[in-house]
Structure formats: structure tokens, C-alpha cells
Amino acid sequence: MLTFVGLGLYDERSITVAGRDAVRSADRVFAEFYTSRLAGTTVERIEEYHDVTVEVRDRGGVEQRPGEILDAAREDNVAFLTAGDAMISTTHVDLRLRAIERDIDTRVVHGTTAQTAASSLTGLQNYRFGKATTLPFEETHGGVPASVVETVAENRERGLHTLVYLDITVDEDEERYMTGDVAAGLLAEPCDDPLGVVVGQAGSEDPTVAADRLSALADREFGPPLHLLVLPAAPHPLEADALVELGGAPRTTVEN
Asked: Which domains does the chain have, with CATH numbers?
């Protein structure tokens, strides 16, 4: 059996009760933290909380060399841990399909996602979110990819909000996390300086929610990672009130 367990958003306590039970009953526990990670904890704290040993795999160990995970799941009860929800990344879907091809039973224990948290914390209605996009570090593409700007524009034309995931680089030598101020600065000019909302530390006891024009957000700090950026479409009156009260947006900016 291979059970995919979403750990939630922030620390070792963000997991659901069902997820906790699945981890603690597993014979072996694998995890990956290159697609995302829990900013409020460490692998060691996860191990201590669940009284297990977590075998962390890098991208190659999951996508190119999944044999050890699949072989273990054929013989034993294996849990595979990811930040957020268990099936948001295509990496995890691919691993599940490989397991099914080997006649290995699979199941999914869901966790809270960044997308639902962004809606909950900002007060923007979940059904009004359109296609999401990811903003890479500037040097990766020599600037802001045209596809990012096009996604924002297309969503806006349809009256939909855009959730912008911010780039993460995790390898043996470095961990880098794009911050909300950097993202706002990169998108201010190509997107015509619209209203934006930075969400930080989602899932923690004291998350950050800050709404203003991108040019203003670019000059602010939003605490430790992880950060998200939301570019709202024209808000519903209730959404406008939420952006002012929950995100501190200037009323005139929201109304315009």
C-alpha cells in the first residue's frame, strides 16, 4: 500500500488526524520537499512528532528513480509525505500512476492547500479564482515570462482572480524562496500596477495579509516565507470590504 499524505501548510501540527494516523501506522515513511515545504518546521521535528524516520527524496529520487519507494510499497505499508495537499503536483500523480501500474494499492489523505488558504485569508471568493501561475526567479527566464502576464490578463478579462505561486529553489547547497515584495516589484510594470495581495505564513497562528497596489507592496516586508501573491479582478462589494478589513487595502484603491 502506498498512501499519499498531505501535511498541510505550515508545521508538523498542520496535518489532519487521518493523515497523522496514516503516518504513524506506516512501516516506512518517504517525503519530498522540493515542490514545496513546511516553513514552520523541520524534518527532525516531523519525525519526533510522529515517532517515525522520514526518508527524504530529492527530485531525481522521486521522478527518475522511484524504484525504492515502489518496491517498499509492494511489500509494506508506505506513507509518502508532501507539503500542502498530496496530489497538487504532477510529480505525485505520476508516482501514484506508476504504483498502480505495478498493482500496488494507493490512497490519498488530503491536506490544506495554498489555494484554499489564499481565498480564506484574503476574503476573495474561491469560485472566482481562475488559472493559477508560477512566477520564477528573474534570472531563470531573463525577466517575467510572457505566459505569466498573459494568464493574469486573461483571468482579469473574465472577472477572475489570479493566484501567483512564487518560485522555490531547494537543493543540497541552497534554499531560496521568492518573497512577496520581489514578486510585486517584478509584476508591477508589466501588469499595469494593479491591486495585489501578499499572503505570508499561511497556516501559522499569525499569518500576513497585505493588500495594495503592486508598486506599494514592492517596498514592504512580509516576514519569513512562504509567500503567495494574489492579483484580484474587480472585487464584489463583500470582497472589497474583506480586502480593506483583512488586508489593510486603501479603500480608494479597491474601489478604483
From this structure: 2-109 (3.40.1010.10), 114-255 (3.30.950.10)
